[in-house]
Amino acid sequence: MGLSSKRTLVLVKHSEPVVEPGVDPNRWRLSERGRRRSVLLGEELGRYGPGVLVSSEEPKAAETARVAARGLGVEHATAPGLHEHDRLNAPFLGDEAFRRTARHFFDRPGELVWGNETAEGALARFEGAVGAVLDARDEDVVVVVAHGTVISLFIAKYNDVEPYELWRRLGLPSLCVLTVPGFGMRGSIYDLTPEG
Question: Which residues, in sequence order, are CB contacts of 133 under 8 Å at separation 6+?
Fold first, then answer.
């Protein structure tokens, strides 16, 4: 998994989608504000000199990456396994119930408490997908645009952070810069949500 010590992985949580309670979240698309924030995301990512943006296949992540990559003039690709924790067919939850359920999910990683995948299962799948992306690419800086739950699980595995608290801090969009190998955080989470 990424043998060069000079490489950088930037994990990005997708931009703001249109929330459609009757539609599975893995089919949500970006809102107009989400597209504007994706332009700003591209500008911010330019500081790191990425060679490619690879996203999950979910529309909100793929659109985020496509808009940002266009502004940067770099390639965008999708890859399997980078999707969010599998919550297909789970009921739509209001904000407070969603936070409570997420807390339960992070606190009991080996138990199936939400959707169709445990936290441990989601982490193993996402970690394998990130490794496959890094192994397949030779760029020094690789950006992966994915989702809050799996990003939080991944970062918490390699850093001294609590996954639920990290999850709560991730904005739409936000980014975290990690070293490769080792996946240690360089600095803190950069949140691009203040723009209206």
Answer: 54, 79, 82, 142, 144
The pTM (predicted TM-score) of the whole model is 0.94
Is the residue at 191 inside a domain?
no
Domain region containing 79: 7-184
Nearest CA among 79, 193, 92 for reference residue 144: 79
The residues, any chain, with a CB within 8 Å of residue 16's CB and separated by 6 or more, are 30, 31, 33, 34, 37, 172, 173, 193
For residue range 49-105, what is the model confidence (pLDDT) as tens digits?
A: 999 999 999 999 999 999 999 999 999 999 999 999 999 888 888 889 999 999 999
142 vs 45: CA distance, rounded Å: 10
pLDDT band for 5, please (50, 70, 90 cuts).
low
pLDDT at 186 over 90: yes
Q: Looking at the domain assignment, is residue 193 inside a domain?
A: no
> What CATH code is carried by the domain that includes residue 160?
3.40.50.1240
Q: Does a structural domain hold residue 195?
A: no
Cβ–Cβ under 8 Å, residues 193 and 13: no
Alpha helices, DSSP H only, in 9-58? 32-45
Tell whether 165 is covered by a domain.
Answer: yes
Number of domains in the chain: 1
The three-class DSSP label of residue 180 is: strand
- Given this model, what pLDDT does residue 4 score? 44
